[in-house]
Design goal:
465 residues; disordered N terminus
Amino acid sequence: MNHPENMTLQATVESGSDSGKTKNQKRAPRSLSDNFSWPGRIAILLAVVLSPWGFASVPYWAQCWIMILLLVGLGFWWFETALNKHKSQIFPYMFYLVAIGLLIGLVQLIPLPDWILEIATGRQKDIYREFSGDPNAAVTISMDREGTWHQIRLLIMGITGLLLGCRFFRTKRDIILLLTTVSANGVLISFAGIIQRLTNSENLFAAYGVSFLGFGPFVNKNNAAGYLLMCLACALGLMAIVFSKKKRPQPIHNVGQSNAQATYFQLLEFISELNARKISLLLVIALLSIGIVATISRGAVIGLLGAGIATVLIYGLARRPKNSFMIFFPVAGLVIALSSWLGFGEALTQRFEKVQLVGMSESNIRFAHWKDTSAAIGDLGPLGSGLGSYRGVHRLYRTDHEGGIFEYAENQYFQSLVEAGWGGLSVFLLAWGLAFNYFSLLLFKGNSPTSIGIGTCGVFCFFSQ
């Protein structure tokens, strides 16, 4: 794994059979199975691009079209496998963790006999039979079977996309294609949202049956901000790939020069190495950052700043760059200047000041409903209340007047604990830990620009989300 060609993302999912290749060797001729890779790859790219434009894929019709595209991708994967006569497939470790979450959801829907109910459930047994009026009613762990089925459908889509992504995006060319597509899609989302903000139009897409949109084609500004943060992570990954490529030999500086002179020469070197590709990526990063600020989401801005600082620190420790750190100064200056000129800076400042003016009363609403629902953790058994059941569970334990319904906990860790128990929360945290481990491995141990880019993308995405 020490050879540069073996530290790409392809080597993490395939054996390093190309370690002996040299630049002078010709590539292997394209096989018949390669013709089935591109249609499957295009199907996945369409699913990735269209999902946010389908109003964040909240409507069922949008999820239906995405699932059709994923099924098309699976079909071409099977064709390719049959033509290559693969005897086995390689699955990433993350697949097994998502599969465990899917299994938990399925178990929560199975009617259980009384002797298992005594072990696996808490108040579900009494609640089901009391509200149904039937002492022999079928009891499941899930308190909201429809909500659990919906989450299972989303998990199936997620696990399918994970497998197809690992299959069709393994080489350097395919990885760059994926990162470029997601980054460009984020720029378009940012433009749509910025136009919406500048025109004060909440009904920009009203012709398509949506009466309220938080930002661009999203029903919620926080969801839009979360997606744009992932797009920004992809753009940073592309930037790391471009800047990690081998450059011409560096000039030898005078050992006796001062720090100011050394910085000046480094700045000149950085400017001399700029080209159209690097300048375009800098603009993309700036536009995505402005789009995140334009969402006026406090959590997203905190995530942007926190993830940016963490990524710079980890990247600096891993790669020890000399001139690359200078890209953050012009980008940060451009983001601040344009955000202030467009008026987003003032609006965001007012959002943060609002927290101080209300004396944390807005946050206390969340803490109050977390406190109410926390009683369910001990009452509903080790496997929780069922995926997607938070809305109903909170209403059972609510102590104040119902002025609004909390469909989500607005805290994924707490919601995982309520809906899937300690086991589900452990799987969730283990998935985050596994992801960070491999991103760090690519960033610290990778010798190729592709592995460094994926590592940078993953670290920013990890901290921002």
